[in-house]
Design brief:
Largest sheet: 3 strands, antiparallel
CATH topology: OB fold (Dihydrolipoamide Acetyltransferase, E2P)
Radius of gyration: 18 Å
CATH class: Mainly Beta
Distance between the termini: 62 Å
Number of helices: 2
CATH superfamily: Protein of unknown function DUF1093
CATH architecture: Beta Barrel
Strand content: 35-45%
Helix content: 10-25%
Order of helices and strands: HEEEEEEH
Length: 114
């Protein structure tokens, strides 16, 4: 019985760590943007403030950057994962996507040509 309690406790702690480490992106708000410009060097890393669009085409302006201090590729398309913090949308993570993977309304807003 003690063995099962120990296993359950370890499993519970592991589950808490996973949710705290932002592994579950499926329940995050998402927005899409295209990298335009060099970004602004702030505290040793490049920050970008760009218009982004959710799946319905609603514009959201967000500020984000790479934690490594590198620049993004010019004209790259990014899927941004967002959470609300103090009434603002904050980027928690991102991934580069191809223009074919963008939702239709986002393509219209970003003026993506086929």
């Amino acid at each position: 019985m003690r063995k099962y309690t120990l296993y359950f406790g370890i499993l519970f702690i592991f589950a808490l760590l996973l949710t705290g480490c932002d592994f579950n992106k499926s329940f995050k708000d998402q927005a899409y943007t295209q990298i335009k410009g060099e970004g602004k060097l702030v505290d040793g890393r490049y920050q970008y403030t760009l218009p982004s669009y959710n799946d319905e085409g609603k514009q959201i302006t967000v500020t984000f950057g790479k934690p490594t201090g590198e620049k993004f590729k010019e004209d790259a398309y990014l899927r941004l994962y967002l959470k609300s913090k103090d009434g603002e949308k904050v980027v928690t993570s991102y991934e580069e996507v191809q223009k074919n993977d963008l939702p239709t309304k986002v393509k219209e807003k970003l003026q993506v040509t086929p």
